[in-house]
Amino acid sequence: MARDEQIDIVIRIFTHRFITSGVPLADFHQATDGIERWEDWLPRWSARAEIHEKLGRDALEAGHTVSAGEHLTTAALIYHFGKFMAVEFPDQMKAAHKKAVECRTLALPYLQPPGERVEIPFEGKWLATNLRRPLGIDKPPIVMMVPGLEATKEEVVGYENVILARGMAVLSIDGPGQGEGEYDFPIRGNYETVAGPIIDWLESRDDLDASRVGIYGVSLGGYHAPRAACFEKRIKACVSVSGAYDWGANWDKKSKLNREVFRIRSHCATMEEAEEKSKAISLRGIAKNITCPIYVVAGGLDQLTAVEAAEQIAAEVSGPKVLSIVEDGVHVCHNRPYKFRPQTTDWIARQLGAD
Fold this sequence. Notes:
It contains twelve helices and eight strands. By secondary structure, the protein is α/β, with parallel strands linked by helices. It folds into two domains: 1-112, acylaminoacyl peptidase (de novo design (two linked rop proteins), Up-down Bundle); 115-355, Rossmann fold, CATH 3.40.50.1820. Strands 1-2-4-3-5-6-7-8 form an eight-stranded mixed β-sheet, with helices on both faces. Strand 5, helix 8 and strand 6 form a beta-alpha-beta unit. Helix 9 packs across helix 10 (271-278). The chain starts with a helix and ends with a helix.
């Protein structure tokens, strides 16, 4: 029996992402070796996550809190990658998502430095976020971390750690169409309507310096971040990694699975409706409104026209800019994280006065 196409697509495109994000290589192999049916993807990954979850809960019961935080964070990540594109199986997807959130939330107080789950009021409901602050700094600057289309706040641990190490707090966000936000709010193009209420909330905290707010986005988040910076002038610096200039322009080149994930998370009934909605995800004609410093990154091997998009964004912004094309980088340069993560976080630390 031939293996389902979805499996080949996901493994081909995302293997670097899984490992760079923190999935142990052995768990990746045991979750994927010999798999042939797409419906087996989520159960196989969840079975690996359950092992780490048990280790974490056992460590917590024994009082080994550092180990508990590490195990539970890994469990959350593996649960997440089990369900991240499993939109055809909504009940299983929601169950695995619940486990991912549960494990990461349980881990937060035991991380180094610790974190807290925060539900920020938003359009009559709330957005789920994870806030972590660097140790020993009374009012650090803050970076809003915005994930991509299939990503969530549970995935971006690696980004959190490099930001924290440079003296900045980090707020990892499940925005509309992402993670916990996907059920109540569809993906939207006007991300300034998300960033604004979040910064309002940041200004209510006496342990953060809300006059020094940056935004860092990857993949679809690499569109959301500069879009927010177009109109939300309280943002003092922006990083965009593999972000779109006009996300819907290459609709026909996206994989069937990618388009279906977008359709579900944009709350569209048909693919035609989803394609029309994708046209709203565009910086065309408004990128010039970006006046804060911006650092734009793309991988030279990215097949989703990311280099062209990065060059268009950089060409049109009005403020100071850095453009970095990682020639041997794939989408989000997951295969070359050392060529952009330290550089972008050093840069944003300097812009926010953290270095």
